[in-house]
Design a protein that fits this description.
The chain is α+β, with helices and mostly antiparallel strands and 281 residues long. The protein is 22% helix and 31% strand.
């Protein structure tokens, strides 16, 4: 007979660790399958930053036979000397309007605590939330930040997503795709992206996208999730967006050279600035 016991190891508050060196067993988390986009990192960062982190453990410990486990939430993120840049980083993490990173991790741990207290659990399972934020592009004018988050809160498997954000750091402004591509050129841009997608997926020009993909009415569409790299526009589809969970993520890069005629005037300035920077290093 399975026996599991919750022990309230702290009477109040949470255990806060500002380093990543203390880990729970976390038997449910086999790996954090966040994507690498290949050779997209810059050769030399222009903005100086250090990596900071916050980890909070749940006060509830699940004990079974000789094993113990607990829930945790963590965030690992770049920290700049410039507070305005840190606000941009916060934007990529606090997607549900949390006031700060501590609240972000606390909310998850409190949610687990409420779940434990409100349910009579025969076999409690620890939860996990791990957010890792990094720069995939770092230039004097533009940065691209990736938020990779893995979350497990029961069920057969955890879920993960990656969110990309592009910022003009001279104006501290997030840039949507139409800052680069004219609205009246978006259809042509999408067709170029579809050709690249089909080549990557091993599909012919006439192969149907209705089978094996979740595109609406079988028509290709751009991922809402876009970023920029040294070489081109990056579009990233998270699990369930266009494929089943088991198929994982899909990403494509559209080279700048293929879409030069589709750029807005502002977009041309951004890309010219980007190219000049990489030619100079």
């Amino acid at each position: 007979m399975l026996v599991s016991i919750f022990k309230r190891v702290y009477q109040s508050g949470f255990l806060v660790l500002g380093i990543v060196g203390v880990f729970a067993c976390q038997n449910n988390q086999k790996e954090n399958p966040l994507t690498s986009y290949g050779n997209t990192a810059v050769a030399k960062d222009t903005l100086s930053y250090s990596m900071d982190s916050l980890r909070i453990l749940s006060p509830y410990i699940a004990s079974h036979e000789d094993q113990m486990d607990t829930s945790y939430a963590e965030v690992i993120y770049p920290k700049f000397e410039d507070s305005s840049l840190n606000q941009l980083v916060d934007q990529t993490i606090l997607l549900e309007g949390e006031p700060d990173i501590k609240t972000y991790v606390n909310n998850f741990i409190e949610g687990y605590g409420n779940f434990v207290e409100e349910n009579n659990l025969n076999y409690p399972i620890a939860w996990t939330k791990s957010t890792k934020v990094g720069l995939i592009l770092n230039t004097p004018r533009l940065i691209c930040i990736k938020n990779g988050t893995y979350e497990y809160s029961g069920g057969a498997h955890g879920n993960f997503f990656e969110n990309l954000s592009v910022f003009d750091i001279e104006n501290n402004r997030k840039l949507e795709l139409n800052a680069f591509i004219s609205d009246n050129k978006m259809k042509e841009f999408t067709k170029i992206a579809e050709n690249i997608f089909r080549t990557k997926e091993g599909l012919s020009d006439t192969s149907s996208l209705a089978n094996g993909y979740f595109f609406e009415n079988g028509n290709f569409s751009l991922a809402a999730n876009y970023g920029i790299t040294k070489d081109g526009f990056l579009f990233h589809y998270n699990p369930y967006e266009i494929k089943p969970y088991a198929e994982g993520t899909t990403s494509i890069v559209i080279p700048y050279a293929q879409v030069e005629d589709l750029l807005t005037q502002k977009g041309k300035l951004y890309i010219d600035n980007l190219k000049a920077y990489f030619h100079s290093i």
